[in-house]
Amino acid sequence: KILQGFFFFFYYTTDYVEEILKLVRRSHGRSHFALRWGLEEEKHADTWANSLLFSRQRSPAFLEDYKYNLRANVHRSKWEDDPLRNLIYTVFQERATQLNYLNLAKIARGQSEKPQHQHDADPLLAKVATTIAVDEAAHYNFFLEGVRLFLYYYPARTLDAIKDVLDHFMMPASAIVPDWNEFNEAVYKAGIYGPR
């Protein structure tokens, strides 16, 4: 359930990139960065899909049906028309996904604090989760620098936007993904991610 959930976050990358491109398409640097960021996120989707297949947790037929059903919905962020809030949201979302994967890697290294996962060591999964977490850290730092620029030039407006994003923060696509509640509960029980 957990790997499948991580897959669906990234499966909506085309929607995330489309939203960002609409906001920054007139900026050569920002629009091209969005394309490259999207490509990297899409590679993460493929990596999680392959993890599901090679762990034999899901069959190729299941995954094809699942992807088809996910595409029935379109992800739209709460701030799809607000570049500043969209940027700030991305900072928190990138950090949250990095923490997800670092905590999954701990479980996969056999270092879980939860008794039910004490014997769930999987060195290959630990490497996959760690590798993706490194990418997420790089994304987080890139977007954070953008927010720091806004804080410098527009402090009041940026702090207001940060508060708004934190007040409404949810992981992407959580409102449209099937089985979201089961995934959320599994992640919470495993100690991977929680309200704090």
Could you walk me through the main structural features you see in this protein, from its secondary elements to its overall organization?
The structure is a single chain. The protein has helices spanning 2-11, 13-24, 28-54, 60-70, 83-108, 123-153, 155-168, 180-190. It is 72% helix and 0% strand. The chain has eight helices and no strands. The chain has 196 residues and is mainly alpha-helical.
Number of strands: 0
Assembly classification: single chain
The chain-level structural class is mainly alpha
Beta content: under 5%
Relative helix content: over 70%
Major sheet summary line: none
Q: Termini distance?
A: 21 Å
Mean of pLDDT: 90
Summarize this entry quickly.
With 196 residues, this protein is mainly alpha-helical.
Break the fold down into its secondary structure elements and pairings.
Blueprint: H1 2-11, H2 13-24, H3 28-54, H4 60-70, H5 83-108, H6 123-153, H7 155-168, H8 180-190
List keywords for this structure.
72% helix; globular; 8 helices; 196 residues; mainly alpha
